[in-house]
Design goal:
Layout lengths: L2 H8 L5 E4 L3 E4 L4 E2 L6 E2 L7 E8 L6 E10 L1 H5 L3 H11 L16 H6 L1
Antiparallel strand pairs: 1-2, 3-4, 5-6
């Protein structure tokens, strides 16, 4: 063996896992943006993944369950991350729709009249 061949044997190319039947299996799974459905590229460093915990309605305690949402950098660049997360949480039944809350610019007396 040459020195280069010995070095190459010691270097692993990317994260992978060997399975018994198929050989190497990749450990990278691309994510999709929950708001747009776009694939989130590996180099999208502005993308975030958020776990929203489920809460027991009666006691208000965390139930050790969560729903995962991924937001691509494009949504965050457009300043739509908060709006998208609220919409996704409402669609998942984790919170009420934002339309059900009174508008903050209305006073309490105006909200009762509507």
């Amino acid at each position: 063996h040459t020195l280069l061949a010995i070095i190459m044997e010691d270097i692993k190319v990317g994260p992978s896992l060997e399975s018994e039947s198929d050989g190497n299996v990749e450990l990278y799974f691309p994510r999709k943006c929950s708001a747009t459905g776009r694939l989130i590229a590996a180099k999208d460093h502005a993308a975030v993944q958020i776990n929203v915990g489920h809460v027991d309605a009666a006691t208000g305690t965390y139930t050790n369950e969560y729903t995962t949402f991924a937001l691509c950098g494009y949504i965050r660049f457009l300043s739509r991350g908060d709006e998208s997360l609220n919409r996704l949480a409402a669609e998942s039944g984790l919170m009420r729709s934002m339309g059900s809350f009174p508008h903050p610019s209305k006073s309490s007396a105006e909200a009762e009249e509507d």
